[in-house]
Every structure is written in structure tokens, then in C-alpha cells.
Design brief:
The chain is an alpha+beta fold and 198 residues long. The chain is built from nine helices and seven strands. The longest helix has 13 residues.
Length: 198
């Protein structure tokens, strides 16, 4: 399994980046969000990757960060969502916006992705919501631990983060350090930043 690539960016198209490593050019399908974050051609690039193997092809998908990679894995676990549809969804919505849409049941936001109709979007929301668990954990490293956020925007943000592959404890700890009065999307965004710094 190819986990990541570090090399020189030698070509870039709207949904494809070619990374040369040791004289071999790896063609990676990328989301529009990742494509916008790539450096200029000729510069060094790092991508997290996942290899999709089919009977007639092997496709390599590249992501700028782990949250997008985790989100891709969650999306492809939904029945009827293949790698191309997952890539299209992540081209339209960043991981935090997708997690927010799932947490709020906003399937219409997902239908903006190329080739994703209302039925598939509703299935994404339904199946990913089913995978969300309400954390019943206590977090904290001192003698006065902080309880996991309960109710309102904080709870929705924790659920959204677990959709992206974080454990309930990690999500609760990250969200618990933020102002629970913030909008759900802002809580998710700030928590993702904090989790990425670990």
C-alpha cells in the first residue's frame, strides 16, 4: 500500500498531479481543494495517497492532508460511492464543510458535486450519520478533567470529526478546548487545525 509520496511536481491538470520520485512519475487523482494547495511545477510536493485497485485499472489518489484522506475513506465506505464520486464530493466540499453538512443533514450541499444526485447525497448523509457516535468519555490531563462537550454545536462538531476518522476522545478533547458558542463549521475547522498540529 502506498501511504504517501514526496517528490517533484512535474505536471498538474485540474484533477491530476504527477509526482516524480526516484525517476518514476506517479499520476495521482486529486481533488480541486488539493490542486489549489499544490506548489508550482518543478517544486517539491508531499501527498498522502491511497491506491484503488480494480480488475482493469489501478488508480492512485493524492491528498494534501490526512483529514481529506480520512474523509475519502469514509465516503468510499458508503454503498454506491466509488473513488471518483468521493473525489468529486471533496472537490466541492472541504472535509470540515462535508462533516458539517452530514451533521446537519444538509444533503443538498453534497448534490453540488459533479455527478452526485439527490439519492446518493441522501445516502451519504444517512450512512455517515449512522457511523457517528455520541462520545461518553471524559478527557483531560490534569486532576480536574474536562467533560466531553454535550449538546448543541459542540456535540455536532464532535460527531462530524468522528465521521472524518478521529476517535471520540480526540474529537471531544479538541472541541472541548474551543468556545462552544461558535458555529459548528468554525468549531470543526478550528478543531481540525488543532488535531493536525499533533
Amino acid at each position: 500500500m502506498l501511504y504517501s509520496l514526496r517528490g517533484t511536481l512535474t505536471a498538474l491538470e485540474p484533477s491530476l498531479a504527477v509526482v516524480e520520485c526516484g525517476g518514476v512519475g506517479f499520476a495521482c487523482h486529486v481533488t480541486m481543494n488539493t490542486a489549489r494547495r499544490l506548489p508550482s511545477i518543478g517544486q517539491e510536493v508531499f501527498l498522502y495517497t491511497i491506491l484503488n485497485v480494480r480488475e482493469d485499472a489501478m488508480d492512485l489518489f493524492g491528498f494534501a492532508d490526512q483529514s481529506e484522506l480520512n474523509c475519502f475513506k469514509q465516503l468510499t465506505s458508503v454503498s454506491g460511492v466509488g473513488p471518483k464520486a468521493a473525489n468529486a464530493i471533496l472537490s466541492e466540499l472541504s472535509p470540515d464543510r462535508l462533516a458539517s453538512a452530514v451533521a446537519m443533514g444538509d444533503f443538498k450541499a453534497i448534490t453540488r458535486a459533479n455527478g452526485v444526485g439527490p439519492k446518493l447525497a441522501q445516502r451519504v448523509v444517512l450512512e455517515l450519520k449512522d457511523k457517528l457516535g455520541i462520545p461518553a468519555v471524559t478527557v483531560g490531563k490534569t486532576t480536574a478533567p474536562t467533560a466531553a462537550p454535550v449538546g448543541g454545536n459542540a456535540e455536532e462538531a464532535v460527531r462530524a470529526l468522528t465521521t472524518l476518522g478521529f476517535t471520540a476522545g480526540e474529537a471531544a478533547e479538541a472541541v472541548g478546548r474551543l468556545d462552544a458558542a461558535l458555529p459548528v463549521e468554525k468549531l470543526i475547522h478550528d478543531a481540525l487545525k488543532a488535531l493536525a498540529r499533533r
